[in-house]
Amino acid sequence: MNAYTPARLLAIGAFALLGGVFAPATVMAADTHQHDTHTAVLKLNQGAKWQTDEALRTGMESIRNALAQALPDVHSGKFDTTRYQTLAQSIEAQVGYVVQNCKLQPEADDVLHAIIGEIGQGVDVIAGHKPGTEREQGVVLVARTLDDYAAHFEHPGWKGLKTEH
Fold it and tell me: Is residue 165, in this structure, part of any structural domain at all?
């Protein structure tokens, strides 16, 4: 896989714009998601989950499925550097797909940006860009972020992951 594919560059750009793991992410204008500069936070839509579109559901299901396949070997210590890199690239590609194709109302989009920021931080760890942090921690962070996604977005048929942590 070319390290500089458009999806990878778009995903990396989105991660760079979106900030810290547990801190709110700063959101700036992006190709298909136009915003004023403000802080994205996880919140519900007046007590209800935000609606999703097909692109968001497809991308998030792909990320979930990649993690579901990886988790047993990650937890047993059988996941090697190459597999972590492949997983990170797969997640980056799906985030790029979501950023490029997802069309949500602005308030829901703001919440999604907080989710994407957390996923980006997890991918950085999975890819080995955070020295001194075990890559497994990035996998767990992304899995927990998917729980945040499920708690804030209406996604029929969504199945959570068991992280064993």
Answer: no
